Amino acid sequence: MNEHEHSKCQSLLGSLSEYLDGTLGKELCVEIERHVAECQNCHIVVDTLRKTISLYHETAAEAGEVPGVVRERLFRTLKLDDYLRH
Amino acid sequence: MVENKPEISVEALRAGDREVFSRMVDSFSGPIYRLALKMTGIPTSAEDVLQNTFLKAFQHLKDFEGRSSLTTWLYRIASNEALMMLRKQRSEITLSDTAPEDDDNSDYSPLQFTDWCCLPETEFLSSESRVVLDRAVQHLPETQRIVFVLRDIEGLSIHETSQILNLSKAAIKTRLLRARLHLREELSTYYGERLERRR
């Protein structure tokens, strides 16, 4: 039988975000961990979902600079030419 | 995430101090440009969103009452501008090219069960992988995309995201979970294939 026919997998899915963000209540965390220890597919979903989120966090931490020419055009559009420096 | 800079005085901004306004632009333009780029996927569109955001902010500074933080207020303008840009783009291209609409009744059950976490770290953030990561965000329905970008790219809280988008925290949590699960599926396809090639 496919483990993902289990109703438990589906009911715990709704709490996964909060579980991975560390904002879920202790009781539900224990329930998820107990289930994941027994259900290989859910174990994979939790691990790969955690990795997915962490990859986006990593790329976000690296980005965030506005290209010089974009900044220059922005300042000119806003008539802030006098404050264009560095 | 951008914190309110102590040197940016809201009073000075509202009084029309151009030097303080220019410092606000420099403090917030990086995150707003990143949000716009993640939302639209097109550098020229992202630049338009960036410019429109600060033009609107300048026009409406007098109405800013400080009930929300400057960060929340600017992200709200930027989010609205990005969503308007997407609607404009959508009207210019065929429907088949756009991301699907969010459907509350869709089944978001996981379909892929390959454990790709064991791949070497160099695989995860290669230049090819970064393209896949960006493209996966573009494939999200817009209503999920904006929530994911604000929460997981910009690092804002559920509370802040709900204030910015004027949605309940429950709606934000639902959209965030769906976005994350959707991205996991798409990354599972890509990294699963990478894993397969290594075997």
Kindly report the CATH topology of the largest domain in chain B. Arc Repressor Mutant, subunit A
Which stretches of chain A are low in confidence, meaning pLDDT under 50 for 5 or more residues running? none
Which band does the percent of strand residues of chain B land in?
A: under 5%
Biggest interface pair, counts = A-B, 38 and 45 residues
- Listing every helix as H and every strand as E from the N terminus to the C terminus, the arrangement of chain A reads HHHHH
Uncertain ranges of chain B: none
- Tally of structural domains of chain B: 2
Proportion of residues in helical segments of chain B: 55-70%
Query: Radius of gyration of chain A over alpha carbons?
Result: 22 Å
In short:
The complex is a heterodimer of chains A (about 90) and B (about 200). Chain A has about 90 residues and is an all-alpha fold.
Describe the structure.
The complex is a heterodimer of chains A (86) and B (199). Chain A has 86 residues and is mostly helical. Chain A is built from five helices and no strands. Chain A starts with 6 loop residues before the first helix and ends in a 9-residue tail after the last helix. Chain B has two domains: 87 residues, Rna Polymerase Sigma Factor, Chain: A (Orthogonal Bundle); 90 residues, Arc Repressor Mutant, subunit A. Chain B has 199 residues and is mainly alpha-helical. Chains A and B meet through helix 2, helix 4 and helix 5 of A and helix 2, helix 3, helix 6, helix 7 and helix 9 of B.
